[in-house]
Amino acid sequence: MHYIRKDNQMVNKTQRINVPGVVTLVVSIAAYALSMTLGKEAIRPQSLLLILVAALSGRLFVYVQKRSSNPLIDAGVFKNWVLRNSLLANFLVATIMMTTLVVGPFFLTVGLGLNEFNAGLVMSVGPLISILTGIPAGKLVDTLGPDRIVKIGLHGLWAGTIALASLPAVYGLTGYIIGICLLTPGYQLFQAGNNTAVMAHTSNRQDGIIAGILNLSRNLGLVTGASIMGALFSMAVATKPIRAAKPEDMLYGMTVTFGVGAILLGLVSIQSWLKSHKPVIH
């Protein structure tokens, strides 16, 4: 630690923590997380109340940041359309990826009748592809540029989600693996391109907070995928306990769940193309 150079320009020892901002942000995030994980039903009055609390706290957080002389987050950063689109896409992509982890095991074991060992082998296909494509995805970002790679990644994710919604009903296990093989490289391309694009359009003084916001949107997406999309799958299967469901019910649940995911990703992809030439506001 003694040999690490101090950067006086980046550190302001007189700054104080914005307590109202921290409190409103924590309340907003906690309320949203609880609303997504409360109980086993898809919609409950308590969940709706917590979502309302999260929305109001989030709005209050923005208000506090605008009036603060030392805000946690400069509200002006959200005028940057690149950041707004990236946060939304990051959220939805994380939701879809978590859906594969939640829905996949049930479909493989109950819908296709695989035992735990074989289901685990199939589930390892995605992480293996991630390992193999992570570094090449970064290299492509450096070669072709982040904006182009984000679009390619979103389309790969879109194609993978459509495949997961349709191919297992026709090709069974092979169709599921094809969907994962399309989805995972798209995810790696999107992550590399999206992170690079966002950081390229922010000032150095905001690198840390922007990186934190990206992580927050990803984590909220993971929570949403595990709860909302899991509940959607359960509602589509319409059998309790879910392990008693018939294979055709599981296929229908896959179709509905990933069909909804494909629609959401399609909207994000279209928005990305439509706004690709819009000027960036720093």
Share in β-strands: under 5%
Total strands:
0
Radius of gyration: 21 Å
Q: Would you tell me which CATH topology of the largest domain applies? A: Growth Hormone, Chain: A
The tally of helices reads 10
Q: Please state the overall shape, judged from the principal axes of the Cα atoms.
A: globular
The total tally of domains equals 2
CATH architecture of the largest domain, by name, is Up-down Bundle
What CATH first level of the largest domain would be assigned?
Mainly Alpha
In helices, the fraction of residues equals over 70%
Low-pLDDT regions: none
CATH superfamily of the largest domain: MFS general substrate transporter like domains
* N-to-C CA distance: 34 Å
Order of helices and strands: HHHHHHHHHH
Largest sheet: none
**Which class do the helix and strand fractions yield?**
mainly alpha
Mean residue pLDDT: 81
